Amino acid sequence: MNAAAAADPRGRARRRSQWRRRRTVAALLAPWAIGFGAFFAYPLIASLYYSFTHYDLLSSPRWIGLANYEYLFNTDPQIWQAVKNTLWLIAIMVPAQVLFALGLALLISRARRGVGVLRTIFYLPALAPIVAATLGFVYLFNPATGPVNTILNAIGIEGPLWLNGTTTAKPTLVLLALWSIGATLIIFLAAVLDVPAHLLESAELDGAGSWRRFRYVTLPTISPVLLFAIVIGVIDALQYFTQAYVAAGVAQGGQAGESAKALGYPEGSTLFYPIYLYEQAFARFNMGYASAMTILMLVVALALTLVILRNARRWVYYQGEAR
Amino acid sequence: MASATAAPPIAPAAVVRPRPRRRRQLLLAIAEHSLLIVLAICFLAPFVFIALTALMSDRQALSSDLWPHSFEFHNFVKVFQEEPVARYALNSFMYAGLATIGMLISSIPAAYALSVLKWRGRNVVMVLVLVALMLPEQVTIIPVYVLFAKLHLVGTLWPLIIPNWLGDAFSIFLLRQFFLTIPSEYADAARVDGCGELRVLTSVYLRLAKPAIAAASLFLFFTCWNDYFGPLIYTGETPAHWTLSLGLAQFRTLHHVEWNLTMAATLLFMAPVIAVFFFAQKVFIEGVTLSGVKG
Questions:
Q1: Pair A104, A46 in one domain
Q2: Is A108 within a domain?
Q3: Does residue A282 register a pLDDT over 70?
């Protein structure tokens, strides 16, 4: 009786303070919550709805059932080229980026001096605005007059067509991606320099050579960072747009994205999924069909992320308490 | 641990053949350093060629010459005369600046609520932030575009600015990561002194998190400054609202791209970013590193 009377006001006070805290949290999160609803949750649902309609932005959406998906999976002659090109990015460009950044980070970490200067040099290209970097590369790799082929000719090698060749356009874009690797490099470098020296030393005393020290000490320690880079890399590859769009437009001789001729120039070899999406949505205003494309993209992005994270449990090692 | 027992048998082996091993290490070090130098040259070369081309005459820029015969510094003036570059720059500046201000106002409180305050459902909300961060932006682009079309904002830069006033997922994530590293004793002390949550945020966390706030601002500013996809879909048809990234590809005559002017404009476009980087290098590097710890 006495205890209950004493407990009750305390409980009420606690409840009141809890309620006040809740109100604070709600107030602090309100702008984000509105943004999340308006620019994320609602668009996801609306995309799903639009994907079952014919919608050109002028008249209201007209329900057509699964017709968009049928066209997407069975008829559209261009979409599989776009899918294949984007999968190529995930299979070739992402591993190239991760391995290159890792190799470079290890090299820099082993340099006797000048780690800071080297880090700045290799980070610098990542600062160049994407459009600026892409225009620079279109000029550098111009098959007829660009500096790269001029230098190759001078040493007796006939330079390839680079961005103007169907087999070389994508690899040239990979070179551009490697040039702009700076952010990933800095993250890797910080992780590599962070590997506890006592672990490496005791491994060395145990007779582990440099490969085994890397394989059994460095690699497990930096594995969370590698996972992060792979996931970000795959997502970036899925939305890879600007470089290919600008390069195709300028390399074929026009302004960026000036004409349908530039779409995936040369011969569709750089027609990536987001570029085709842009063409459908904002050049032809097939909003319904483009929504079906975004739904497919969403499903693929979620599936890939899940597969990578699932798989990661086997090779990613978290120090101490995970996260 | 194990090293103490394993050390003796290994040490003699190391003494027996020190020479070849040392020589191999030396060769390896030379190979590594040469590779680094070659790569560093490859990374810097594009900037050099872009700068050289920017100084060439119109005709020379179309030839395969590498070195300008006469240095045409006038190109940097011509860039402003041929295209409304000043206007593009102003548009870029407005977009990036207003977006950054809005991000700070909306994202700092959100990050605070998601790191310092403890409440049920916090982790669920954090997962939502991360999901929004991880998915490609094109996944939501069509309904968002339709929304802004209905609001008659297509053709302006507002569709790119407004969402940042309602929280930017990456900035929230970055700021939260930093807030988590600040010991909670500071906040507790302030609360004991009678500060409300708002005062704790403004007088403790804003002060201690200055580097992270600077990094988040710089990142968002340059993300907007460099953005191409957004301005393309919203202002592609209205050149008055073009940003630098859209205007950059406009230097061409009827028949060919004016490479010297394009490269001059490219340099002008890169310059502010690189200048800021050299002043705020530490902020950049620490910010990038912070975004990478704890995937």
A1: no
A2: yes
A3: yes
Structure tokens at B244: 């630098």
- Residue-range definition of the domain harbouring residue A13: 2-50
Note whether residue A118 is domain-resident. yes
Say how far apart CA B79 and CA B269 lie, in whole Å: 11
Query: Mutation test of the interface with chain B: which of A15, A121, A135, choosing the one with the most B Cβ atoms within 10 A?
Result: A135
Is residue A224 pLDDT above 80, yes or no? yes
- Model confidence pTM above 0.95: no
Q: Are residues A157 and A27 in the same domain?
A: no
Within 59-98 of A, beta carbons closer than 8 Å to B belong to: none
Regarding whether A201 and A121 lie in a shared domain, the answer is yes
Q: Please check whether residues A260 and A197 belong to one and the same domain.
A: yes
The structure tokens listed for B179 are: 């807030």
In tens, the pLDDT along B138-149 reads 999 999 999 999
- B53/A139 CB distance under 8 A: yes
What is the reported pLDDT for B42? 94
Residue B170 touches chain A, beta carbons under 8 Å: no
Q: What is the pLDDT of residues B12-63, one digit of tens each?
A: 444 455 566 788 888 888 888 999 999 999 999 999 999 998 888 877 777 7
Out of A43, A183, A302, closest to residue B288 by CB: A183
Instruction: Determine which of B21, B108, B139 to mutate to test the interface with A (most A C-beta atoms within 10 Å).
Output: B139
Residue A163 has pLDDT above 70, yes or no: yes
Residue A31 domain-assigned (yes or no): yes
- Whether residue A44 and residue B140 make contact (CB cut-off 8 A), yes or no, is yes
CATH number of the domain where residue A278 is located = 1.10.3720.10
> Looking at the structure, do residues A142 and A259 belong to the same domain, yes or no?
yes
Pick the range with the lowest mean pLDDT from A31-35, A96-100, A113-117, A224-228: A113-117
Residue A218 and residue A200 in contact, taking contact as beta carbons nearer than 8 Å? yes
List, in sequence order, the alpha helices (H) in chain B. Answer: 3-16, 18-54, 58-61, 75-82, 85-115, 122-134, 141-150, 158-165, 169-181, 184-192, 197-199, 206-208, 210-226, 229-235, 244-247, 259-279, 281-292
- Specify whether A41 is located in the same domain as A103: no
Report angle CA B235, B236, B239 to the nearest 5 degrees.
75
CB pair distance less than 8 Å for A104 and B291: no
